[in-house]
Structure to design on (163 residues):
């Protein structure tokens, strides 16, 4: 069990023309029941990877392509939550959970890269979140590079999680 985190790319479309369309999207009724928790990589834990069920559900925006995945990196999740709370398109107070998405812009990636390189991700804790220890930096920078390429290709990039 734990915090599973995902970044996706998405082509622009009539339904998703602006970042606020990603932020404010509400999934229709679930097409199938999702497990009450998602656990990490089968190879490492010996437990089935229920994250695949989330990836195959209608909670994700149609046409999304998995760009990157993290497991138990709460400090990055905390950074994303702060970014989400500060978005000007944010419509109403609600909890930052698996139904929320954070559309990322070039400026967001610049800010994230600065935070990652200088150890400024906010210390974040939560039930079964695990602990970030700084060893994630190379992986985070790899994500940022992939996300920049997707944005340069005219696509959206967004973050979501399951815990």
């Amino acid at each position: 069990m734990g915090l599973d985190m995902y970044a996706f790319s998405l082509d622009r479309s009539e339904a998703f023309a602006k970042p606020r369309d990603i932020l404010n999207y509400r999934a229709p009724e679930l097409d199938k029941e999702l497990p009450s928790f998602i656990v990490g990589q089968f190879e490492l834990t010996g437990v089935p990877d229920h994250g695949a069920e989330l990836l195959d559900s209608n909670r994700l925006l149609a046409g999304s392509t998995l760009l990157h995945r993290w497991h138990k990196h709460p400090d990055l999740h905390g950074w994303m939550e702060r970014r989400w709370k500060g978005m000007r398109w944010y419509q109403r107070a609600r909890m930052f959970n698996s139904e929320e998405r954070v559309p990322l812009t070039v400026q967001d990636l610049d800010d994230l890269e600065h935070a990652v390189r200088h150890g400024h991700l906010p210390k974040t804790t939560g039930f079964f979140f695990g602990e970030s220890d700084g060893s994630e930096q190379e992986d985070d920078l790899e994500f940022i590079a992939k996300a920049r390429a997707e944005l340069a290709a005219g696509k959206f990039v967004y973050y979501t999680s399951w815990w």
About this structure: The chain has six helices and four strands. The chain has one domain: 4-162. Residues 4-162 form one domain.
